[in-house]
Amino acid sequence: MDILLSIIYLVATVTFIVGLKLLGHPETAKKGNSTAALGMGLAILGAIFLSKENVPNIIYILIALALLIGGVIGWLIAIKVEMTKMPELVSLFNGFGGASAALIGLVEFGNITTSSEATIVATIISGVVIGAITFSGSLVAWGKLNGTLKSVVKLPQYNIINNLFIIGIIAFSAYLVIAGIGNPVIAYALLALGLVYGVLFVLPIGGADMPVVISLLNSLTGIAAAITGVLYDNKVMLVGGILVGSAGIILTVAMCKAMNRTLGSVIFGNFGGAVVAEGVNKTLGTITNTTPSDSAIMMNYATNVIIVPGYGLAVAQAQHVIHELEELLTKKGVNVKYAIHPVAGRMPGHMNVLLAESNVDYSLLVEMDDINPQFNNADVVLVVGANDVVNPAAHNDPASPIFGMPILDVENAKHIIVNKRSMNAGYAGIENELFYNSKTTMLFGDAKAALTELVSELKGM
Amino acid sequence: MDILLSIIYLVATVTFIVGLKLLGHPETAKKGNSTAALGMGLAILGAIFLSKENVPNIIYILIALALLIGGVIGWLIAIKVEMTKMPELVSLFNGFGGASAALIGLVEFGNITTSSEATIVATIISGVVIGAITFSGSLVAWGKLNGTLKSVVKLPQYNIINNLFIIGIIAFSAYLVIAGIGNPVIAYALLALGLVYGVLFVLPIGGADMPVVISLLNSLTGIAAAITGVLYDNKVMLVGGILVGSAGIILTVAMCKAMNRTLGSVIFGNFGGAVVAEGVNKTLGTITNTTPSDSAIMMNYATNVIIVPGYGLAVAQAQHVIHELEELLTKKGVNVKYAIHPVAGRMPGHMNVLLAESNVDYSLLVEMDDINPQFNNADVVLVVGANDVVNPAAHNDPASPIFGMPILDVENAKHIIVNKRSMNAGYAGIENELFYNSKTTMLFGDAKAALTELVSELKGM
Amino acid sequence: MKIGILKETQKGEKRVAMSPNIAKQLISKGFEVLVEENAGKNSSYKNTDFTEVSASVEKREVVFKNADVLVKINPFDEEDLKLVNKGQILMSQLFHMSNPELVKSIAEKEATAFSMDAVPRISRAQDMDVLSSQSNLAGYKAVILGANEMTKIFPLMMTAAGTITPSKVLIYGIGVAGLQAIATAKRLGAVVEATDIRSETKEQAESLGAKFIQVESEGEESEGGYAKEASEDYAKRQKEAVDKSLFQADLVITTANIPGRKAPVLITEEQVSQMKNGAVIVDLAAAQGGNCEVSKMNKTVVKNGVKVIGTTIAPESVSTNASELYAKNMYNFIMHLTEENQFKWELEEEITDGTLIVKEGQIRKN
Amino acid sequence: MKIGILKETQKGEKRVAMSPNIAKQLISKGFEVLVEENAGKNSSYKNTDFTEVSASVEKREVVFKNADVLVKINPFDEEDLKLVNKGQILMSQLFHMSNPELVKSIAEKEATAFSMDAVPRISRAQDMDVLSSQSNLAGYKAVILGANEMTKIFPLMMTAAGTITPSKVLIYGIGVAGLQAIATAKRLGAVVEATDIRSETKEQAESLGAKFIQVESEGEESEGGYAKEASEDYAKRQKEAVDKSLFQADLVITTANIPGRKAPVLITEEQVSQMKNGAVIVDLAAAQGGNCEVSKMNKTVVKNGVKVIGTTIAPESVSTNASELYAKNMYNFIMHLTEENQFKWELEEEITDGTLIVKEGQIRKN
Amino acid sequence: MNELIEFISENLQITYILILATFVGIEVIKSIPAVLHTPLMSGANALSGVVIVGAILVMLNADPEDYISLALGFIAVVLGIINVVGGFAVTNRMLQMFKKKK
Amino acid sequence: MNELIEFISENLQITYILILATFVGIEVIKSIPAVLHTPLMSGANALSGVVIVGAILVMLNADPEDYISLALGFIAVVLGIINVVGGFAVTNRMLQMFKKKK
Ligand SMILES: NC(=O)c1ccc[n+]([C@@H]2O[C@H](COP(=O)([O-])OP(=O)(O)OC[C@H]3O[C@@H](n4cnc5c(N)ncnc54)[C@H](OP(=O)(O)O)[C@@H]3O)[C@@H](O)[C@H]2O)c1
Ligand SMILES: NC(=O)c1ccc[n+]([C@@H]2O[C@H](COP(=O)([O-])OP(=O)(O)OC[C@H]3O[C@@H](n4cnc5c(N)ncnc54)[C@H](OP(=O)(O)O)[C@@H]3O)[C@@H](O)[C@H]2O)c1
Ligand SMILES: NC(=O)c1ccc[n+]([C@@H]2O[C@H](COP(=O)([O-])OP(=O)(O)OC[C@H]3O[C@@H](n4cnc5c(N)ncnc54)[C@H](O)[C@@H]3O)[C@@H](O)[C@H]2O)c1
Ligand SMILES: NC(=O)c1ccc[n+]([C@@H]2O[C@H](COP(=O)([O-])OP(=O)(O)OC[C@H]3O[C@@H](n4cnc5c(N)ncnc54)[C@H](O)[C@@H]3O)[C@@H](O)[C@H]2O)c1
Q1: Domains of chain C by range and CATH?
Q2: The pTM is what?
Q3: Residue B302 DSSP SS3
Q4: Same domain for E26 and E57
Q5: Which residues are registered as beta bridge partners of C33?
Q6: E56 and E23, same structural domain?
Q7: Quick one: pLDDT at residue E10?
Q8: pLDDT tens digit sequence for A143-190
Q9: Residue spans per domain, chain B
Q10: Do E47 and E10 fall into the same domain?
Q11: Which residue among D46, D161, D188 sits closest to C325, beta carbon to beta carbon?
Q12: Please, what is the average pLDDT of chain E?
């Protein structure tokens, strides 16, 4: 019995590792998820039926009930929720995991005696505190992403207060471990402290940084699970938890990088909240940044891609790279076309000269009037260094100097990626609301550099 | 004492992992080597001074003596040997490691009693056998690379015999574990069997495949070390050994891939010996293949690179990629020039038209007469789809149809990389001995594809 | 409404203001199109090409008599005006600022006249802008013309019979024509340098692969996207900066214009005498007096071994494309001015206001 | 040894067989160089350019009188031969297979004659191969010439005034000239198709971005790298395969030659009549009778709206480069034939054997 | 500090496991395309639901009379399984995105 | 098979360590440029010299009178240290190649 359980745990652990590994590649990711899920199922069944003999039936019934209720709830939420609400859902689920850990800690707290080893005590206390932090923190993150919690609280010296608070919790816990526990109510105090800190920690953080926070909290939940694993000397919890913990940290760092932040600035404050990021415009809204790798995936899995070249392509001399991109996508089975606006660039036929230089096939260059109806079918439009020629103000804003000029209707596409160096205006010197469109993501950088990165990301897929 | 030792072992283990990791990148490789070496030193010192108390001084003296003798020998060999002899040296060293494991097994064999656990017995037996195999196998590999051992033995049904032999050994060992050991002489029998198998295993394998074999044997040594680690319940040996074992297997597979072989064909025969590879010419000798990644490293660490474009560049339409390569190298601080032979291609000025299309700066194109004296200073010459214009037959062979034609003196460079699709001749239809030059490596493949890979390898550095 | 297309009578002109394609589009919008006999001959359009799309091909007099709108490329001349009737609407380039007499004569005829060269350079007028569409072709053709006249080839070639160094091309004025000239010369493999008084052209020139020759400048040298007349001081500094390139150039193309004025002199006779033997200058500003002191309109002057070609025939010589583009500009212009085949006469509207020079005998602009 | 450079007298010819640069190199090797007055004028070389490098510039008669070797580009003609003395060594293109009389006249003068067009096409002779060096320029110039004559531009342009479709260029014969024509037309943005009887040219044409038009062929169509005369059957199949492209082409360049024979007729008058109005044909084989039935040497014939330009002046018109390359070929040739300024007369040696047509009055080849 | 050393020496194997698992976590994750960040985070989140094993153990070990423990354990199991099931399901849905259309 | 299961259950921690270490070895090595294959092999070879620790233990545990064990141990130490020292030194020399010239 015991051996079998051990082996089941071992297998589960391996599925976790393999699953995580597979999750790292677009092609294998789904398989990775199933693998890990399978392992998890095994571990749960093993835990129920093989850990202990002679358990009263009522307990089994209760467990089954709990699993049923929770399972159905989890499943339904996951299936029902809109695609766009997924990140907040992850946060919510994560919070539940944290809560579970905290509750376990609470129960075990009751079993602590004065003769308990310090290790055990430390484990239990950390479980409660960390679980509580992730629970409340995740809930706040969920609320924020959800739109329920809007105001960004920003007291003066907020960071200092925050950091003092967590140091206080740690000191108190350390004291408890060394001095021993006098009163079981202390467990609830710790729980409360953790909950408060979780709120304090996440509340001041701006919505844009939320994914980083969720990832961090997720990593914490992993650590809580690992600690619980130590408590029960349970390898699958230990290894699984540590895996999530370490992978989570790396992931958090990677996400920070992708958003041009440091993990330091995430943990120790000056979190996005107060800084008004570039690209936030009072009337037009916020822009969304993207990375070459995201753009690459998006294009890789598209069926129709339309490239809109503009003056910036010429400035960057990126004609060779864009051709490489087009060839690569074509080889991957994507339909690629270029939409040539009659006044793109700075002279008549500027884009033609440019693209002819890199041997782009003439048949791929489509005139404005012919391509405009096709944007409906485009999964991705890649706008490279163009601005005025895709500015909807030409349609919408009679006051605009370009009003009345025909433009490329890129807005009709499913998704728009805009590459330029900054939020600077083009020839006509006017703002472009396309950049603030919810379907648009901005890929900032010199066209040549950005496209080169895009190409190498694509090659790796 | 014990705690300290444990921690030392732990630290050493971590240095092994980190060292191996660092070894995987050209920039950090040296640091990785030092890190691992440091950890190893720690582990050795720890083992000597902290494992056991009350050891008679004579033992310490003996150990010191052994270390001194071995250390000096190892150091001297490593420092003295020529660069070109290094792979065989690795093999030799590896053999010593195997021998060491076998000897340990032999000693411990004496301590086996009928009451010994099966695990222990299995461990000792595997240590002896695996150690012996790596020892004799490595020595044979060394001898082959060395040139001492030349003849490729090739009995009919050799593979079958070989495989039966190893199955026999395994069966015998299993029997011993289950039935128990009757006679300590059996240890020597196992040793002998291992040694014989090592020889049988490596002897029929051709010289070109030797690096793969060495890597495989190296992996085996790692496993032997790990097994010894289990025996002594010594974590640093265990983890270190396993690391080497698993990394070694992966490395072996990677090497096989780079040589277009499968690991299967390596282990279960039909090993290179009898197949006459393309590119072996009776009078001119053998060619050496290379990979984009090797070529990339070579160019990355060069100071001067000269590119020789030829007709194949035009056929492959690789002008844009070569320009990208040139720009990339230049950005990395390498001096790059193009050597333009007056009749490269199929029309006067063919290379000029081609390279102008991709905007190669005119000042980088150097005429034959001007570039010829510069080949002396070139670290790497990259010949892309050129053949006749770099054929030394024009100088050496009065019977050749191109005799008397001036050529680019690429032979004077330190290293030459030739990219073409096959060993086919060029316009003049003649063999080119340059390809068989010991300084030349062949990068086979369509110019566009090969250069694209080269570029992406370079970007990763 | 009947639109009459006249044959161009100016010497050397091969274009026509309409193409069969565009005629068809006009007709499908309900216009009638009358084309003068053989108007399209030099642009490779046969009379039958027009009749095939239901335009009618008529004798000159008939066109003048029947058409409501008369369309040309070059300004109406005395001969044309004789045949113009009261109330007819004339459309062509007029260059009204430099041709006050012409404007007066039109007014005397009590006709209405739109000038195509006066289309304002605003975004939505781009498709009616004949200056742009023709300059663009001029830039291309100037290079071809130059290449044809040169005794050297453009590209670098390393051959068994020695190396041919690439030609050096220098371009003055980086407007529409200048940019296309850069692009074309660069394509052919020349080493291209370019200069302009407007500093924003630097990036544009570089985006096409030319080296920009920067002339130190203090003041504002441009106005609403056009160049102002250069100060003497600027002219001096320009010479200093450009001379070295000029004296090594194999082909020089000048395109500098200041709207409504004589073209600035950028290359003096003295400078020409220092140029390379065998060099060629193509002066696209010759019609406005020329950027080169030596150049004569529609003539090739050889001075000290340097050929100076004064021309406006650059776009004319690629007449098929030039006519097509002009016709398309006209189409867009007419569509802009009319609604259900009737003129809207929105006199406040920027494009109408800018181009309507004479309205029923009333001179609106000078 | 004195090398005399004669001024070319053929009409339209602007080249000269020597450049100042190469004269200097010859002189540094110990030769004396005599250049006829004004020989380099049309290649942008002044007399002073030659005297500066220590060549002497002399009147025609003086050159004929004093030189040991007389060098020209075009075949020596009657006028020239009158001045030739016994024992003088003549070097020029002779086209001896088609010019038996000329060879006879030279022999009668008891002179020696090398024919530059007879340099064998072997690797080590590449740097003396004037056919290659001049064809190369011809290929380039044919495109420029065609582009200048056309009423269309080459590249695709999508502009506010509509889209200009790219010109279609069709090239017959993918030898040296054909390849360079492909490259040049392609650079300018045309859509290029090409055909040749030798199937190995497919890959070459494609390596320069042209589409190859494959003509089904049964037999061996080439011989030692040169084309054989095509069978009638081949000619028929060729027409079928190419006609569609021909009738849509804006510019056609023909370069097909068969060494020592009349050029093959590839485009009949009937085919010309089906071509696009406004199309241009540049026939580089005009001197060998032309690849187009309609073409006349050094004339532009307009047939049914199609301009047919028969020319050999293509390389001549880029005289500076053409002269440089020819001169370099001559230099290499002379260096090959001599040792310490004396002829070696290695009659067995392949290049000498191939090019030496008349030796001291003895005709060696016909 | 002392405690730490003590812990390590007492739980040597566990320490090795911890360290090795950390390395595995790091190595397995590094250099993933950014677009997988969210699915990966979601997957990792589902994995962290492994804490449910602990919750199950709490219930198994609870005295059937100890209602508080039982209740807490029950809630812990519910929450944990929501994390697990919901987590894997959501990840799976996110990954639908990566199916090649057609 | 039974033995294996027994071994695993008896040495559970060790098994975890084995598996995790294997993963680390694999993950750490995968996707290295081919030109590093040889130095890496050499470095790994040096690491496999860790078996010397075993040899040292043999000697430390040997009875000073047990000459055979001592001798074998002695040889094992000598061979092992050659592997270690030579291995690292050779690797180091190979890696000199990667120094940027200048
Ligand atoms: N075609 C003609 O004949 C002609 C002639 C004259 C004027 N125009 C006018 O020019 C405009 C053409 O529109 P367009 O969309 O092509 O250009 P645009 O509106 O001028 O926009 C170009 C954009 O490219 C970006 N850019 C510049 N350098 C870049 C680089 N190295 N990498 C990436 N992005 C870069 C700039 O943004 P960042 O600075 O943020 O990077 C800029 O917003 C129209 O307004 C048209 O009317 C056309
Ligand atoms: N320049 C002129 O005017 C002129 C004119 C006529 C003849 N020639 C003659 O042409 C020759 C020119 O010499 P060269 O060195 O440039 O060319 P070459 O000697 O003809 O060699 C070209 C090489 O490129 C390789 N190749 C072909 N396609 C390739 C592809 N897609 N990717 C990679 N490699 C490819 C071929 O080998 P694989 O098939 O193995 O790939 C071939 O060996 C000389 O012999 C010259 O005399 C020159
Ligand atoms: N937005 C639009 O709708 C639109 C349409 C067409 C053209 N444009 C712009 O209008 C501008 C003018 O174009 P254009 O080609 O008609 O100009 P143009 O023909 O009036 O002049 C040609 C060029 O000569 C330059 N120049 C004048 N004096 C000079 C001097 N002394 N030295 C050097 N250069 C001198 C001018 O700066 C100009 O670039 C260009 O920037 C063009 O892009 C805009
Ligand atoms: N190796 C050398 O030294 C060297 C030097 C120069 C040229 N060459 C080679 O010699 C060959 C001939 O070159 P060239 O330019 O002097 O040739 P050319 O002037 O004799 O003929 C031009 C082209 O016309 C083609 N042609 C002939 N009859 C034809 C027909 N009926 N239909 C279609 N095409 C026809 C020929 O195949 C040839 O490609 C080329 O392949 C060239 O590369 C070699």
Answers
A1: 2-118+319-363 (3.40.50.720), 132-316 (3.40.50.720)
A2: 0.81
A3: coil
A4: no
A5: C3
A6: no
A7: 67
A8: 888 777 765 666 666 777 888 888 899 888 888 888 777 677 888 899
A9: 1-80, 84-274, 292-459
A10: no
A11: D161
A12: 83
Domain count, chain E: 2
- Find out whether B91 and F86 touch, Cβ atoms under 8 Å: no
Residue E58 resides in a domain: yes
Block means of pLDDT (10 residues each) for chain D, 366 residues, are 93 92 94 94 92 94 93 92 92 90 92 93 90 93 94 92 93 94 94 92 92 82 69 85 94 89 90 93 91 90 92 82 95 94 89 93 83
Residue C314's pLDDT is what?
72
Residues of B in contact with A357 (CB under 8 A): 357, 359
Cα–ligand 3 centroid distance for C259 (angstroms): 9
E40 and E87 inside one domain: yes
Fold of A292-459: Rossmann fold (3.40.50)
DSSP-assigned letters across all residues of D150-219:
-SS-SS-EEETTEEEPPPEEEEE--SHHHHHHHHHHHHTT-EEEEE-SSTTHHHHHHHTTPEE------S
Q: Where are the alpha helices (DSSP H) in D198-339?
A: 201-207, 232-248, 269-273, 313-317, 319-337
Residue F81 lies in a domain: yes
Res C268 pLDDT > 90: yes
Is residue B274 over pLDDT 50?
Answer: no
- Comparing B122 with B260, which gets the higher pLDDT? B122
Residues E38 and E78 in one domain: yes
pLDDT of residue B378: 94
Strand partners, A420: A444
The beta-carbon neighbor of F88 closest among B37, B47, B219 is: B37
Which tokens in the block code for residue D212? 């190859």
Inspect the interface and report whether the beta carbons of B320 and A357 lie closer than 8 Å.
Answer: no
State pLDDT tens for residues A274-310. Answer: 443 445 555 666 777 888 888 888 898 889 999 999 9
Q: How far apart are CA B318 and CA B325, in angstroms?
A: 11
DSSP reduced 3-state for E1: coil
Is F102 inside a domain boundary?
A: no
- The three-state secondary structure class of E47 is helix
In this prediction, residue F11 carries a pLDDT of 72
CB of B340 shorter than 6 A to ligand 2 = no
Nearest-CA distance D69 → chain B (Å): 26
| Residue E78 touches chain A, beta carbons under 8 Å | yes
* Substitution site in A355, A418, A427 for ligand 1 pocket (most atoms within 8 Å of beta carbon): A427
What's the farthest any 2 CA atoms get from each other in chain C?
A: 71
Contact B14 E19 (CB under 8 A): yes
Closest residue to E27, CB basis, from F16, F17, F24: F24
pLDDT category at A258 given cuts 50, 70, 90 is low
Chain C residues close to D184, C-beta within 8 Å? 188
Domain enclosing residue F6, as ranges: 1-31
CA atoms within 13 A on the CB side of A397: 13
% of chain A exceeding 70 in pLDDT: 91
Strand ranges, E, within chain E: none
Contacting partners of chain C (3+ CB pairs under 8 A): A, B, D
- A257 pLDDT more than 70: yes
Point out which residues pair with D195 in neighbouring strands: D172
Locate the ligand 1 atom nearest the alpha carbon of residue C126 and give its number.
47
d(CA D110, CA D363): 10
ipTM value greater than 0.85:
no
- Of the given ranges (A89-93, A114-118, B253-257, D45-49), which has the lowest mean pLDDT? A114-118
Q: Is B2 a catalytic residue?
A: no
- The reply to whether residue C163 touches residue B367, judged by beta carbons under 8 angstroms, is yes
C46, HSE (Cβ side, Cα atoms, 13 Å) = 8
Residues F81, F55, single domain; the answer is: yes
Half-sphere exposure (CA, 13 Å, Cβ side) for E46? Answer: 32
**For the residues B403-419, what does the mean pLDDT come to?**
93
Which secondary-structure segment (H or E) carries D143? helix D130-149
